[in-house]
Design goal:
The complex is a heterodimer of chains A (275) and B (308). With 275 residues, chain A is mainly alpha-helical. Chain A is built from 13 helices and no strands. In chain B, strand 1 (44-47) and strand 2 (50-54) form a beta hairpin. The model of chain B has no long low-confidence stretch (mean pLDDT 90). The chains are: A mainly alpha (275), B mainly alpha (308).
């Protein structure tokens, strides 16, 4: 009995310590964003009792930040549109049709999943330059889409396969074309799959700084995470402003996550859990 | 009827390609072709971004000669250490947290949400946040250590060669541990309750149930985590780049194969010139390490998995 209480307490303590380890740095981030830079020297851990909202105004007034956010939004949403449309179509075919070449195409998509985009970055750079897609949001969108598509197609194919076959025949007997079948009948049924694909793809794209670092050059086109690397250098001695900038960049996802945590967890682990 | 089914077939064939084409073309143009090009680039001499003559395996050989050899093996050693450290520390902590969540009856949702929270953070934000927290003079970590009387422990964690890499592994742990935790939790939840109940009736203790029933049945989750960790560790780039820059500061202590690949591809602060040939050769080698390692590893581990 006593043993049981000790084990119970031990495992609860594990969770509480883990929660503190996660939450304290996040709290430090938010708290520091509301402090005056001068006060850090004396005590880096003091509570921001008298919030210094000025830090946020200063970040915003810097002029580039709103633009960085806008660019990230364009690139992320643009990639999502391409990914969702392509994965819906390809997942529909691979999940519901038997045809010659089916397994060949599966194999092709699978190899796409095994190639890390980072290691093909040089030819990609030269190729984008040749296609006039360097320093272009559209070029970046296509590269992100290509990276996310293999997994997205597999996830969607799985969802399409799980729907009963009778639906198709019923719709076809009613005279629906294949396009109508997909758009009006099946697409609404695979909506949970689309949500998973959207989160699986969008979060890493929003958070990425590597591809924009290589492919975007004009300051007015830079994305938020790439912009932060410039910002961090510029304000390295103004901690209050620095943390306000980090907070602005982190907050959109934190809020979305708190609202949709179940979907986030499902979406971000989608590649690792068998469906 | 015959007629109708044939037109349906024809109509379907047309649709197959209309629906498949956009996705397949995007993958072909922006993933497959560049990947094959990397392989071809590695067999040529390069002058900046201009391709020269065919070089055979010279670029690969150059990687094992001065000046690349030492960098290559140092980086390879760092990647290997990081993989082992993550497997030992992060994976077992992830499993511990997963099991603690699994046996929790109330409040699981809250702790699960908190556990996974850092995984949604951009590594740029994680990197900068910890860089400030670990700052030698004004950072809260050293301040706390000093306040609780461990003044001698306070040190420039990211600024000295002896602690830089372990500190990066720790930051990586902070950001990632929720991921294996959630995967293991999903694995635990998928195990039929009957096994656990039967063992309890037979008088098995909690520790025995975990060792003899739950742990072996977690093998599929273990395989996935190991493979993903292997790939992540040997392509480790974002966090070392954000914190140590392209040269793996301090003094190359946090250098990785992917950082070296980046330097060779695009040049860096300390050597402006790049060498695309050698860079591509390194890219091919990283790809082989990751591909062979993940392939062989998953085969070996799958064989050890047991069915429920």
């Amino acid at each position: 009995m006593i043993n049981k209480i000790i084990t119970g307490t031990f495992f609860k303590a594990v969770l509480v310590i883990n929660a503190l380890m996660v939450l304290l740095p996040v709290f430090f981030l938010l708290n520091s964003a509301l402090r005056e830079t001068g006060s850090f020297g004396a005590n880096p851990l003091e509570l921001a009792r008298d919030p210094e909202w000025n830090n946020f105004t200063q970040v915003w007034a810097d002029g580039e930040f709103p633009n960085f956010l806008k660019n990230s939004l364009i690139v992320t949403l643009g990639s999502l549109v391409v990914i969702l449309i392509c994965a819906l179509g390809a997942g529909f075919i691979l999940g519901r049709y038997q045809f010659k070449g089916n397994s060949l195409i599966y194999g092709f998509v699978l190899t796409g999943m095994l190639v890390p985009a980072k290691l093909a970055i040089l030819p990609l750079f030269i190729q984008l330059k040749w296609m006039n897609l360097i320093d272009s949001h559209f070029g970046l969108i296509l590269v992100y889409a290509s990276g996310a598509l293999p997994a997205a197609i597999f996830i969607m194919a799985g969802f399409f396969r799980s729907l009963p076959a009778d639906i198709d025949s019923a719709a076809r007997i009613d005279g629906a074309s294949e396009f109508q079948l997909l758009r009006l009948v099946l697409a609404p049924l695979v909506r949970p799959g689309l949500a998973i694909v959207a989160i699986y793809s969008a979060i890493p794209i929003w958070n990425d700084f590597f591809l924009p670092l290589v492919f975007l050059q004009s300051p007015e086109k830079k994305t938020i995470m790439q912009g932060l690397t410039l910002f961090f250098g510029e304000y390295s001695s103004q901690w209050g402003v620095l943390f306000a900038g980090l907070t602005i960049a982190a907050l959109p996802l934190i809020i979305l996550y708190l609202l949709l945590s179940e979907q986030f967890i499902k979406g971000l682990t989608a590649g690792a859990v068998k469906g | 009827m015959e007629m109708q089914s044939r037109t349906l077939k024809q109509q379907q064939r047309k649709f197959i390609w209309i629906f498949l084409a956009p996705g397949l073309l995007t993958i072909l143009v922006f993933t497959t072709i560049p990947a094959i090009s990397t392989l071809s680039y590695s067999f040529f001499k390069w002058e900046g971004f201009v391709r020269g003559s065919f070089a055979g395996f010279e670029n690969f050989q150059n990687l094992f000669k001065f000046p690349w050899r030492d960098q290559f093996f140092a980086a390879l050693a760092h990647n290997t250490i990081v993989f082992i450290a993550i497997m030992i520390i992060q994976t077992s902590l992830g499993m511990l947290i997963a099991y603690a969540l699994f046996r929790l009856k109330r409040g699981q949702r809250f702790f699960r949400t908190v556990t996974f929270l850092p995984v949604i953070f951009s590594l740029v934000i994680v990197g900068y946040m910890w860089q400030v927290m670990l700052n030698s003079y004004f950072g809260p970590i050293n301040k706390i250590l000093t306040d609780i009387g461990l003044e001698s422990w306070a040190q420039p964690w990211l600024g000295q060669t002896s602690t830089a890499l372990p500190t990066l592994v720790f930051i990586n742990l902070w950001r990632w541990v929720g991921f294996p935790a959630i995967i293991f939790l999903a694995g635990l939840n998928a195990i039929s309750n009957d096994f656990i109940e039967a063992a309890k009736i037979d008088g098995a203790k909690e520790g025995q149930i975990f060792r003899k029933i739950l742990f072996p049945l977690l093998a599929p989750s273990m395989t996935i985590i190991t493979i993903l960790t292997f790939i992540g560790a040997f392509e480790w780039f974002d966090l070392p780049y954000v914190i140590g820059g392209t040269v793996g500061s301090p003094a190359g202590a946090t250098d990785t194969l992917a950082l070296m690949f980046y330097r060779l591809s695009f040049g860096s602060a300390d050597s402006v010139s790049n060498d695309i040939g050698v860079g591509s050769a390194l890219g091919v080698i990283i790809f082989i390490i990751v591909g062979v390692g993940a392939g062989v590893g998953s085969n070996l581990m799958r064989r050890r998995e047991v069915e429920q």
